[in-house]
Amino acid sequence: MRRRRRIDHSLERPAYKQLADIIRDQVAKGELEPGDRLPSEHDLMQGYDLSRTTVRQAFAHLRAEGAIVTGPRGSYVRGEDNRQEVTPSGAVVTARMPSEEERRRLAIGQGVPVLVVTTAKGDEVLPSDRWAIRIEAGE
Question: Nearest-CA neighbor of 27 among 77, 86, 100, 75?
Fold first, then answer.
C-alpha cells in the first residue's frame, strides 16, 4: 500500500494549501492523470483528517490555478488531450475567466479559462482546455 503524505497542522502553511500540494504532487508523479476523477470531499476529509471547508478551499485553489475542473459529477484533473488548434493570423489573443453564461453555453468546468481571439470579424471565445494556439514560424 502506498504511503500517504500527511497534513501537518503545526506548519504555518494552511492545511488547504498542503492538500493542494499533495494533489499537485500526485499529478506530477503520474498517480493522477489528466481526466482522472479526484477522490470525493468525504474521502479526502477522512483520509487526511480535514474539514469539508478545508477540502473545498483546496479544490477552489486548484481550480483557480487551472489544475482541476469541477463538473456535476465531481472534480477531475484538467486534461490537455484532444485540443483543436487555431492559427490566428493577424489576430489578438487574450485569456480570461468565462462569465457564467459562457461557462454554461460552452460547457466549461469551473476553473477553466477561455481564449478570446479578436479579429476584424469580431471576437471568438474558445475554451482553453479544448483549444491550442499555433504560432507559425516567422510570425
Answer: 77
CATH number of the domain at 15-77, please? 1.10.10.10
| pLDDT tens for each residue of 114-124 | 999 998 889 99
| Rounded-to-integer distance, Cα 1 and Cα 55, Å | 23
> Helix (H, G, I), strand (E, B), or coil: what is residue 134?
coil
Across-strand partners of 64? none
Q: Which residue has the cell 504555518?
A: 12
3-class SS at 82? coil
Joined grid coordinates for residue 46: 477522512
Q: Which three cell numbers stand for residue 40?
A: 470525493
Residue 88: Cβ within 10 Å count: 17
pTM of model > 0.90: no
| Domain range summary for the chain, segments of one domain joined by + | 15-77, 84-133
Number of neighbouring beta carbons within 10 Å of residue 12: 4
